[in-house]
Amino acid sequence: MSTFQKTLSKNKLIVALFVTLLAFGVYKDALFLMAAPMYLGLIASAYYVGSKISDYTINAFYSWSIKWTVFIFSLIFTGLYMEAAFIPAMLLYILINSTINPMMFASKRELTT
After folding, report:
1. What is the 3-state secondary structure (H, E, C) of 24-56?
2. CA–CA dist 26, 102 (Å, integer)
3. Burial readout 61-86 (b: 16 or more C-beta within 10 A, e: otherwise)
4. In whole angstroms, what is the distance from residue 104 CA to residue 15 CA?
5. pTM for the whole structure
6. pLDDT tens digit string along 3-42?
7. How far apart are CA 3 and CA 8, in angstroms?
8. Which residues pair with 12 in a beta bridge?
9. Of 27, 28, 64, 69, whose CB count within 10 A is highest?
10. What pLDDT sits at residue 7?
């Protein structure tokens, strides 16, 4: 997880945008305070499971597919239960998807090329 912390410390703009989107989403719907950490948890746990896959190709395919599957289902959930916070949620999910790299959760010696 140190790579994730390095990414955040280098990119103060990303952190500021994340906090702004989180605050705006909570302003629109208080349940958003629960949705953003749940999305982060789902992505992190999916990437952690993917890091256990030893083949690099299968790992990359798994990580890409699970990232967008979680994204779509999270947007459906947000659209159904938090309509007012849909746009901030979508922007926050896109920010998370583009910031967090699945290889952050995989150690170099576990992957084979």
Report:
1. HHHHHCCCHHHHHHHHHHHHHHHHHHHHCCCEH
2. 27
3. ebbeebbeebbeebbeebeeebeebb
4. 18
5. 0.70
6. 656 665 667 777 777 778 878 777 877 888 888 888 888 9
7. 9
8. none
9. 28
10. 60
Q: Give phi and psi for 4, each to the nearest 5.
A: -65, -45
Residue length, the chain?
113
CA-wise closest residue to 22 among 7, 42, 67, 14: 14
Per-residue pLDDT reduced to its tens digit, 75-97: 998 889 888 888 888 888 888 88
Distance of CA 37 to the CA centre of its chain: 9
| 112 DSSP 8-state letter | B
pLDDT tens for each residue of 39-73: 888 988 888 888 888 888 888 888 889 988 999 99
Is the model's pLDDT at 103 over the cut of 70? no
Q: How far apart are CA 9 and CA 79, in angstroms?
A: 32
